[in-house]
Design goal:
Elements (H helix, E strand, L loop, with lengths): L2 E6 L3 H12 L4 E5 L10 E2 L8 E2 L12 H4 L13 E2 L5 E4 L5 E4 L3 H9 L3 H25 L9 H6 L4 H7 L4 H8 L3 H11 L14 H12 L3 E2 L5 H12 L3 E4 L3 E7 L2 E7 L4 E10 L3 H4 L10 H8 L7 E8 L13 E4 L3 H13 L9 E4 L14 E8 L10 H19 L8 E7 L1 H7 L37 E3 L13 H13 L4 H6 L1
Parallel strand pairs: 1-2, 1-12, 2-9, 6-14, 12-18
Antiparallel strand pairs: 3-4, 5-8, 6-7, 10-11, 11-12, 13-16, 13-17, 14-15, 15-16
């Protein structure tokens, strides 16, 4: 059987592109090297039977602004059972002095919490949330429009009453924004930690928006999770694709592009099997691997420059645990999310450790997730899945050394967490699975150098420069070949933005439109 479009990669972005194409009536085949679809949105039994762990992503905040979910454009909620949970409390942050700052879904309650440390900071926090609420539509419009298909971000900001301020704010660092708005060390730490949740060091220029947007997203939608695991999103997309005649095949690793007459007409698997496409090939293969799948002369100079200079960005170190209890900090209720930031200076050292390739186990900042607090369906009754996320560099002196130091780093992170959650004794932990940055790359090659966001999202690798100068509209130098996934605009996180944007471009090239698909 022939296919109109072959999509390489069954992460949530590849599946999103495929879903729009399938709904438009095109014959779509999706291929993925892993045994399960989902990429970094997979959920798997990593520790014990019955304990469903999110292999990489857990929170689905960013995708809530995507019309795919916001407007339920493809009926994933209405027809395919995708359901989201908004936990309360949102996140709890303990401090070495015994204090705990709790973010609640209610902004007044969050402000009351902050006011315990500084009434002035509480007022500033509320102002920050209000300011971002007024401008959020501009950023959302830009993120969900393919580059070149609408005004630039600065042009959009120029048309907004608050735009002039935001032209500067977005070029500032999150650290400078935060220190200019709040002063109590605990509040500064909380906002620095929150701004770091897209894996960009908060002292970096160009992260100013994150000082607002990350806290705003959690404040308005909580640490939002899909019922049944992160995989609920790709599973809904797979069902939609199959209902419209498409197919998703796992266990197929693409080895090279099939080219005829200078055009991409399919792909060849490492097994030797060829999958031909009548109309187009869509790739979510990481750029660093994709460029080796065709002769060098097929890629133009600007594209090769973009790939040659591609930076991986911050990598994660993840330990999964099956437990009998959730971690408990302070005297308040358990929370799906716990943030450990320690103090402002410690948060600002994260970027320095990465730049130097240094494993820093001194009071490590952590993101601690226990989704079973809000979604008990993920584990046997009375049991929990716990994920402890640290931030360590892939590129140490010898990345192969990660296999020998992995357990040591996991123990250090767990010991640090236990200072704040002493109930996590050895008898509470039933089993574990530890994933270093190297392991994350082994799990999913798109996590190049351990970066689960496809690569750094700094200003040198964003918007019209992502993935390469002159090639940011999802079309690639080889005719018939398109790119989606986190190496394209608007970048990493569970946003579905690259998938929807790529679908919009390809649908237009195929003679229809995303709007026609939605209205059908």
């Amino acid at each position: 059987m022939g296919w109109d479009v072959v999509v390489c990669g069954a992460g949530h972005n590849g599946l999103t592109t495929a879903a729009y194409l399938a709904k438009a009536g095109f014959g779509v085949l999706v291929l993925d090297a892993r045994s399960v679809p989902g990429g970094d949105t997979a959920s798997e039994e990593l520790t014990l039977p019955g304990f469903l762990h999110d292999s990489c992503s857990t929170a689905h905040n960013v995708i809530q602004a995507n019309p795919l979910i916001r407007d339920d454009e493809l009926g994933l909620r209405r027809d395919y059972g995708l359901e989201y949970i908004e936990p309360d409390p949102v996140v709890r942050m303990p401090f070495p002095d015994g204090e705990v700052l709790t973010m609640w879904r209610d902004v007044d309650a969050t402000c009351d919490e902050i006011a315990r440390f500084s009434p002035a900071d509480a007022l500033e926090y509320r102002r920050m949330m209000d300011e971002y609420d007024r401008i959020k539509g501009v950023f959302s419009s830009f993120d969900h429009t393919p580059i070149g298909w609408g005004p630039s971000l600065d042009e959009l900001l120029a048309g907004h009453p608050d735009g002039a301020r935001w032209m500067k704010i977005r070029r500032m660092s999150a650290a400078d924004v935060i220190r200019g708005r709040v002063s109590h060390p605990h509040v500064v730490t909380f906002l620095l930690w929150m701004s770091f949740m897209t894996m960009q060091p908060p002292q970096r220029l160009g992260t100013g928006r994150l000082a607002y947007s990350l806290a705003y997203g959690r404040q308005t939608r909580s640490w939002i999770i899909p019922r049944g695991g992160s995989a609920a999103l790709p599973q809904a997309l797979v069902r939609l694709i199959e209902d419209h005649g498409g197919e998703v095949r796992t266990g197929v690793r693409v080895g090279k592009l099939v080219l005829e007459g200078g055009r991409c007409v399919g792909v060849e698997a490492e097994s030797g099997e060829v999958y031909r496409a009548r109309r187009a090939v869509v790739s979510s293969i990481h750029l660093k691997h994709l460029i080796d799948m065709a002769p060098s002369e097929m890629w133009d100079e600007a594209f090769r420059f973009g790939v040659d200079t591609w930076r991986p960005g911050v990598s994660m170190f993840v330990a999964h645990y099956a437990t009998t209890q959730p971690p408990l900090v302070g005297s308040g209720p358990p929370s799906v999310a716990i943030g450990v930031g320690v103090d402002p200076d410690r948060m600002l050292r994260v970027g320095e450790a990465f730049d130097r390739g240094r494993v820093d186990l001194d009071d490590p900042p952590l993101l601690v997730l226990t989704p079973t607090v809000a979604d008990p369906s993920r584990a046997p009754e009375g049991r929990h899945t716990l994920k402890v996320v640290g931030f360590q560099p892939y590129e140490i002196d010898d990345p192969g050394r990660w296999d020998s130091i992995r357990d040591e780093v996991a123990e250090a992170n767990l010991a640090h967490l236990r200072r704040y959650a002493p109930n996590l004794t050895d008898d509470v932990i039933l089993a574990s699975a530890v994933k270093s940055p190297v392991d994350l790359e082994r799990m999913n090659p798109h996590n190049w150098h351990g970066s689960c966001h496809g690569g750094d999202q700094g200003i040198f690798q964003a918007a019209e420069l992502r993935p390469a100068p002159g090639w940011s509209d999802h079309r690639l130098p080889i005719p018939g070949l398109y790119q989606t996934g986190s190496t394209t605009h608007p970048g990493g996180s569970v946003s579905g933005g690259p998938g929807r944007n790529a679908a919009r471009v390809l649908l237009a090239d195929l003679g229809t439109s995303l709007e026609a698909v939605i209205s059908a």
